[in-house]
Amino acid sequence: MKASSLRDIILTLAAGGLEIFERTTGRRQEDIVAMCRRLVHLKGEASAISLGDKILTTYKGLSTRNRLQFFERLLTEFMPDSRRLDEAIAAYQRDPNANTAAALQGAAESPRQELFRVLNMGPDGTASIVAMRADLRSFLAENPQLKPVDGDMMHLLQSWFNRGFLRIERISWKTPAFILEKLIEYESVHEIRGWEDLHRRLADDRRCFAFFHPALPDEPLIFVEVALTQELPASIHDVLSAKNPGEHAEIKADAAIFYSINNCQPGLAGVSFGNFLIKQVTDSLAEEIPSLKYYATLSPVPGFLAWLKQQLTTPQRVIAFSEPELLLLSQLEGSSWCEDSKAQQLKPLLLYLCAYYLLYAKRGDEPRDPVARFHLRNGARLERINWLGDRSEKGLRESAGLLVNYVYDRKAVARNHEVYVNDNEIVHSSMIDHLLKKRPSLAAV
């Protein structure tokens, strides 16, 4: 037999196998949609739990393409009953009262929400729905029409994962290894390079806390890493490279620095766990270490450089740049610029632009920067912008190497939160005002 003939046979068999696989997963997709239709009409709780478990098991066996098709079917086939909705609207318009309003609300609710509520009843329901939403989010960029399905999941997850259900737990070297492995896996701000690096981050001059939910007892939702230091550090290198003081060494610290905060579940992205999460950590630290005076972050500014590049290239820019400024800012590509002599010429301009970005670049009524939104909602004060505080490749690529201190004044956290959420006021220090007071001139560059 010729090699080419053997190759043709193999390709034919492979194609046949793929066709069988697609038919099989296609049938599963049809089966799961039919099961979902039955589920939303079942009366018995036991039978609903059993069918829900079968649906979730079938979903896990779907291919990526069939998962996308499943969400598309949820979008088009699990809509409110139009006749019932029209009748409820007409009834409310004739006689607007509490009963007709409740009936209208019930008629307008998507059957998808009831589907997800019933699926959640099973023993692994919550974890499965969180994983399902992670899949859905991976499709949204190319399939924005699926946003109503995501909205239904968000609505339910917001109520299931509010702060009242969360418990805080100290993470130490004695914590079970499978949890420590997740800390390494989920660290996205400053990579943990193996077990030795992790051991350093759990030393006596460090603290780590995790938030858990009863429905996901072995899956951390948020990790908060803290360094005990003297005064506010300006560089993450100073924090991460600090010498281990050794076991039982006396820790002379007056500041608790939150240098890494990670949301661990992609399926819960955008789901607010409520405000004052950081306050729970500061309260725990204050009780343990009464000598602490300062509670602050050393935070990245992940959207800054993308915003700046947009300003440099769009005709609708909100900031006018001179030719010398444009020439200087064009050198921000790559990571070598911070070693160049031009770095010091860039410093006053970048500090000014970052302060402007944090205070005035908006997404709706809130800051455009996601880290700023998180800390300001939690009651922090925008305190200081640190020049080249993070020289890592990621830090330079996203934040131009800048890091920000947000300060949590325990006496002012509640007030800062209230003025932010009610009046969109960003509480900030005089140092930030000073950066914005007079824009640096580069006419002589």
What does the model show?
This protein is α+β, with helices and mostly antiparallel strands. The chain has 3 domains: 10-160, Malonyl-CoA decarboxylase, oligemerization domain (Butyryl-CoA Dehydrogenase, subunit A, domain 3, Up-down Bundle); 165-295, Aminopeptidase, CATH 3.40.630; 304-437, Malonyl-CoA decarboxylase, catalytic domain (Aminopeptidase), CATH 3.40.630. The chain contains 19 helices and 9 strands. It has a 5-stranded mixed sheet with strand order 1-2-3-4-5, sandwiched between helices. A hairpin with a 2-residue loop joins strand 6 (362-363) and strand 7 (366-367). Helix 15 (342-360) crosses helix 19. It is globular and about 70 Å long. The termini are far apart. 29% of the residues are buried. Residues 18-22 have low confidence and may be disordered.
* Tally of alpha and pi helices: 19
- Order of strands, widest sheet: 1-2-3-4-5
Low-pLDDT segments: 18-22
Provide the CATH topology of the largest domain: Butyryl-CoA Dehydrogenase, subunit A, domain 3
- What is the N-to-C order of secondary-structure elements (H for helix, E for strand)? HHHHHHHHEHHEEHEHEHHHEEHEHEHH
| Distance, first to last CA | 75 Å
Give the % helix.
40-55%
CATH-defined architecture of the largest domain: Up-down Bundle
How would you classify the helix and strand content by structural class? alpha+beta
Arithmetic mean of pLDDT? 90
Number of self-contained structural domains: 3
What CATH first level of the largest domain would be assigned?
Answer: Mainly Alpha
**Sheet having the most strands:** 5 strands, mixed
Strand content: 5-15%
Return Rg in Å: 27 Å
**Total beta strands:** 9
- Write out the CATH superfamily name of the largest domain: Malonyl-CoA decarboxylase, oligemerization domain
Q: Which word captures the global form?
A: globular
